Amino acid sequence: MTTRQTRRRIAATTLAIGVSIAAITIPPAAADIPPPEDGWTLTFGDDFTGGAGAPPSQDWIVDTGTSYPGGPANWGTGEIQTYTDDPANLAQDGNGNLRITPLRDGAGGWTSARIETQRADFKAAEGGAVRIEARLQVPNTTGEAALGYWPAFWALGSPYRGNYWNWPGIGEFDVMENVNGKNETHGVLHCDVSPGGSCNETEGIAGSSPCPGETCQGGFHTYRFEWDRTGEVEELRWYVDGQQFHSVSESQINPQAWANMTSHEGFFLLLNVAMGGAFPDKDAGFATPTASTEPGHPMLVDYVAVYNR
C-alpha cells in the first residue's frame, strides 16, 4: 500500500469514528437530573428519556379539554386553547425532552397540552425544606409571533383535586411563568382569598427576572422554587439558573391563610403551555393571541426534579 493510500485509509477511519461518535453523542439540550447536594434527597424525578413520539410516563396525568369536570371554565384563567393528548401537542422527542406544542387549526382554534404529577404530596417536612426544579426552554418565539404564548411550570395544593373551587386558599406556587415571548421569568405565590387577601389576589405576590446570559427563549434554563422550614420563620424562594430573584416570608401572610396553604398533604406539579388568558401581572400584559401569532413553537422540558432535606 502506498503512503497516499495509507493516509486516505487513516482519514476515512477517522471520519467514520467521528461520525459514529457524533451519532451517539447526547445533544447539548439533554442533561441528567442533577444528583442531590449533601443533605438533600431526590424524592421525584423525570428526565423524559422515552422514544420519539412517546407520551409522558405513568408518573403524569394528561389533562384534556377546557376545564376540570365541574371546575371553572377555561381552566379558571380565560385561556382559549383546548388541551389534548395528541402527540402533535404532547410527546417526548427521543432526545431527552418533553415537547408541549401549541397548534392552530384551520378554523383558528388552538390546541396545546397540560400534564400534572400523579403524586400530590410534595412539601417541606416540618424543620426541613423542599426544592421543586425543572430545566426547560420556553417556546422560542418573540415579538408579534409570540403574542398569547403562556408557558408555565407550577404547583397546586392537593385539596384542589376533586374540588376545583377552593383556589387560592389551598396555595399555588408558580415556579416559572413566561408570557408573550418576553425575556422574563415570573415567580408567583397565590394564597388566602380572592380578590384581595394577604396574597393580593388575583395578581398574587410576584417577582420577575430576565434569564441570565442567554434569553429565556434562546436556550435552556433551570427554574427552582424552595420552601424552607428550617428557621423560626418559613420562607419561599424563587431562582433562575441558581440566581434568587424573589422571596416571600411566612410573616407577610395572614397566619390562618399560611396554615391553610401548608398544613394539607402537599402539592402536585404541572407543566403546560396556555394560549391566551388573563395573565395576573398586568404590567407584563395579558396573553392575547392575534392573527400574527405563530403556532408550532414548543416548550421543551429536559427534566423535572423534587429534592427534600
Automatic annotation (TrEMBL):
SUPFAM superfamilies: Concanavalin A-like lectins/glucanases
Family annotation (InterPro entries): Beta-glucanase-like, ConA-like_dom_sf, Glycosyl_Hydrlase_16
Record's keyword annotation contains Membrane: no
GO biological process: carbohydrate metabolic process
Lineage top rank: taxon: Bacteria
MF annotations from Gene Ontology: hydrolase activity, hydrolyzing O-glycosyl compounds
PROSITE patterns referenced in this protein's UniProt entry, alphabetically: GH16_2
PANTHER family cross-referenced by the UniProt entry: GLYCOSIDE HYDROLASE FAMILY 16 PROTEIN (PTHR10963:SF55), GLYCOSYL HYDROLASE-RELATED (PTHR10963)
Protein name (database record): Beta-glucanase, GH16 family
Highest classification ranks of the organism: Bacteria, Bacillati, Actinomycetota, Actinomycetes, Pseudonocardiales
